[in-house]
Design goal:
The structure holds three protein chains of three kinds. Chain A has three helices and eleven strands, in the order E-E-E-H-E-E-E-E-E-H-E-E-E-H. Chain A is α+β, with helices and mostly antiparallel strands. Chain B has seven domains: 113 residues, Roll (Ubiquitin-like (UB roll)), CATH 3.10.20.440; 191 residues, FAD/NAD(P)-binding domain (3-Layer(bba) Sandwich), CATH 3.50.50.60; 114 residues, FAD/NAD(P)-binding domain; 67 residues, Orthogonal Bundle (Arc Repressor Mutant, subunit A), CATH 1.10.10; 151 residues, Probable tRNA modification gtpase trme, domain 1 (Gyrase A, domain 2, 2-Layer Sandwich); 89 residues, Alpha-Beta Plaits (2-Layer Sandwich), CATH 3.30.70.1400; 99 residues, Elongation Factor Tu (Ef-tu), domain 3. In chain B, 21% of the residues lie in helices and 28% in strands. In chain B, the strands form 13 sheets. In chain B, strands 8, 9, 12, 13, 14, 15 and 28 form a seven-stranded mixed sheet that branches. The chains are: A alpha+beta, B alpha+beta, C mainly beta.
Amino acid sequence: MAETEMQLAAKSPCAGLLPLTIGDVTLTEDTPAAMTLIAPYKGQEKPLSDALNAAHGMGFPAPNRATGNAEARAIWFGRAQALLVGPVADPKLAAHAALTDLSDGWAVVRLEGAHAEEVMARLVPIDLRPQVFKRGHTARTELQHMMASITRIGPKALQIMVFRSFADTLVHDLKRAMEAVAARG
Amino acid sequence: MRIAGKGLVSHNRTVNFSFNGKDYMGLEGDTLASALLANDVHLVGRSFKYHRPRGILTAGSEEPNALVSTGKGAARDPNIRATQQELFEGLAAQSQNCWPSVERDVMAVNDLAAPFLGAGFYYKTFMWPAPLWEKLYEPIIRRAAGLGALSGAANKDPYEKAFAFCDLLVIGSGPAGLMAALTAGRAGADVILAEDDSRMGGRLLAEVEEVDGKPVHVWVAEALAELEAMDNVRLMPRTAVTGVYDHGTYSALERVSHHLPPSQSLKTAHRPRECFWRIAAKASVLAAGAIERPIAFRNNDRPGIMMAGAVRAYLNRWGVAPGERITVFANNDDAHRTARDLVAEGVHVTAVIDSRHDAPDSGEFPVIKGAMICDSAGRHRLESVTIRSVNGEEKLQTDCLAVSGGWNPSVHLTCHMGARPEWNRELAAFLPKPDAVPGMVVAGAANGVFSTYGALQDGAQAAITALAGIGTSVDAVPLPEASDAPYRISPLWAVPGKGRAWLDFQNDVTVKDVAQAARENFRSVEHMKRYTTQGMATDQGKNSNVAALAVLADATGRSIAETGVTTFRPPFVPTSIAAMGAGAEDQGFMPQRYLTSHKASLQRGAANIEVGLWYRASYFAKDGESTWRQSCDREVTMVRNAVGVCDVSTLGKIDIQGPDAAKLLDLVYTNLFSTLKLGRVRYGLMLREDGFVMDDGTTARLGENHYVMTTTTAAAGQVMAHLEYLTQVVRPDFDVRFTSVTDQWAQFSVAGPKARDLIDALVDEDVNSETFPFMACGAITVSGVAGRLFRISFSGEHAYEIAVPARYGEALYRLLLERADPLGGGPYGMEALNVLRIEKGFITHSEINGTVTAFDLGMQGLVSKKKSCWGKALSERDGLMDDDRMRLVGLKPVGAMQALSAGAHLFDPDATVERVNDLGYVTSVGFSPTLGHMIGLAMLSGGPDRMGDTIRLVDHTRGIDTLCEVVNPVFFDPEGGRVRG
Amino acid sequence: MRITCPLCGARDHREFTYKGAALPVPALDSGVAEWDAHVHLRENPAGPHEELWQHAMGCGAWLKVRRNTVSHEILAVELAQDAGLVIKEDRS
């Protein structure tokens, strides 16, 4: 039984690493209040989507799509699952889906700027140009050697997620690519 | 010699450069080759084998002779083609393969020994005695081999790689490529136009003619301006497409900054030298043009002897006449244009020597028909040639010979997926096989269409055909007017006669060498290539392959079509390893995974060790400890006597939920999990489908349909993929969901007799033997943070694993250490963790090495008889249950303080140490401070039946040969009283 | 090589991992002989071949890919969950 009251200090995955601006591209960390993986049970896709709409105002996203807005976003996160980013998931959703708290499991960064896609072209084997990868589009792919989730969140802004423990490498790889793109002028 | 005002160079902008230490001046727009020729420098290098003086042969990336080194020290770039290197202020280039200088090269004595150095020389000379190979022959050959040399220092220049995507990739920007890009671009298709040259336009830049009623370079500039203005078209100059791969994947090498002076500013310090592109294109048009081929004759390699098309290119594009009295030697009409253009610029053309009796006449220059050039003379520069005709032989004074044996379409990329080109007699050339590469359409000279108009038309049609193949319909565009002169040729490969007539300039292969290969029965073109090394240099024989196989065909009495070509493989141009490996050097080689406790561990003196991608604390050096063993011994003793804290977050953690969660666990584990009580943890073993052990770990039941599985650090990814396989492929009917929560939770082992004191004082809940008995788990709150507590042990001590969301990991770790210190405890690392588990006989992937079964590990009791499970069927195969299999035992040295080593092999003390007597091997060892001697785990044939036996342990690598006693693998506290206490 | 994942679209092969032939899975208790045949006695055709790939660096889906082992042409891709490879029911 604890005899003292104190609060453990929290630290974000990219603490001490960001922000970073090189050329016209800026890399910042996002720290959403909560992230919850929502994986619907068999035959529950529709009721889940309704419940999600009722609780958080967005439907369950189709593959490669994100729904919602900057405050509350549901990002398709792979086969038969989505990540609710922003609000704490309504416990009522648990009737239709497995809910797993991943608020601390992923590092979340935002890459923004006129040459953001050119930076990503050095690291990611998919086409992220704005005419192809539009607002509301998301992808599960790899960034250099890491599993990643990439979502367009603005005309010149991409959200990138990797497992938390890879945060250092994520920043290293992005920084290198940002430097190379900026040096081309 | 520069012709004032001529060409596409800036005549009013001079550029200073040096070659072999001497200063020269060139013009903006020059290549190193054009600038050297403008300065009358013809001798640029020495050949590979015979060190013969060589000059500039071509004007493109196929150049075999004019290879130079640029840059200094670690940044030195060898084998740079002078014909491609753009001039920049301060460029310093050096010749290669010569010493002390290109003019006075001592190795030129090789040329005198030429009669002894012919084809197959190495194979015949260096056969035996075999021991001399390593000591004598190979070092000599190695020193003599290779053209340029690397500095040996690590290259710190930045390189990069990148991905690109398009509907249509157009390779080459000559008339066919430009027209293909215009056709597709105007239709709105997503187009990449890649051009090897620094300047787009291809062959059109080298010609004097009209397109669309304008001078050709004006038409090119207008076409490029239109393409540049299109958002859907991306122009990639200085980019050679180097390879074609399955399903529309292309590799390309972009020379990003070879044309710029070395970086002077911080901003450009990161500017890459080269970028290696992977381009995914739905369709492509190959418009790579054609490469002119020489005609072999005696001494045809003298500086000043060049390709006719190259002479024309230097004249028309760079405003350089490579000589003052130029002679042309050809077997086709195209080469006559060279004479025409030279005369038009006032350069003296002595004659066009044409081997054909029906060669066209000209009023502007003499044409000698039915004649050939059979020899040349001159020391470091051509001075004269010998003409052989019906009138006999006669010498002609000339300082430059422009040779053309016809044009070889650049079919290389069409062959990268296995297709072979097809011989066309009329054009005396290999043409691409139709549909050689799915989605690729070949156009223009690469397709054997040599006239400008033909190429424009073919390029436009190719774009339409290629886009139709991906379901995009495109309108035809109007074709500009242009010359449509026919290409007339009569084959001539080698001029008969004595002496050495060169085919492959870069590897010094002659007509005689090829004939000799045929005589010695290397008749297959692939054998001839390897025997003579023809086509095996950095230029891959772009100039010489077809002529060489024509000579081979002649020598073997076969047709060229029957003889065939060697296999063209990627890369089309030499590609630096630095570009292909870009991004993977240093920290980019593989990701680093850091624990939340990483910084705090370092502050406590941790030395790190890589475990997979993770960086974990190996041991914590305290003041006065000078070896890792001292720290490790202290940490083990600390855990056994007080309490130790270790970050175990690297273990894979998989959150499993759903109505069928228990069914999945019963399928994947050998033992039962559906019977596991809520709030309890169980150890489990999982098998591969072939019956061998895949992984082990504990799984906790957090709710009725909610489990959290732990895997070993090493197998976390494998187990996750396995669960996905079982639930998607094998039992898609299971209603179960899971995800990795490895990174979500920071988890720390707190182990030792004082672990409960520490934990109980830390968390809000009561922690005692009733609330948290051995193998219990539950929710706790620690300093206001909701966490989880597991009463599990990997040390045999009373122990817990406490988990909190990762953002609190560092704070909790610091707090745990702060609490452990006054208890006589502290952090422990991987070394101590390893000793603790070996003392208890607990296994890791040192033991679960892919060749062991549950039976081998003495864990057959964990394979439930009440149910089947994945892998059980094959685990019961004959031979997998035999008593004499190598099975887990403990080892301790006979007599104290003997060293044991992991990887050592085990033998009967009476048996000889050889393979047939091998009884097993040691998997893990450590010094047990608890027991005061080394201990080890081993897989030993019939192990459990040899308890108390003496066994001989031999490790040749480390020089260890010692006797051990076979003992129970559980060295410490075999009753398990401590863990339950 | 590029594989069109039914969920993610065409992706570079670097995102995928290969397992082997896509074969129906025997019942757990169908005995050593049948399992031995399933695991060890496989065809190695020069031509169309059905195989299992996982989009491991992407969506995680297991795929049944029909691929020509000679030309590498990919003839069909479907989610393995729909491919009917499911384990046979135990006999007991």
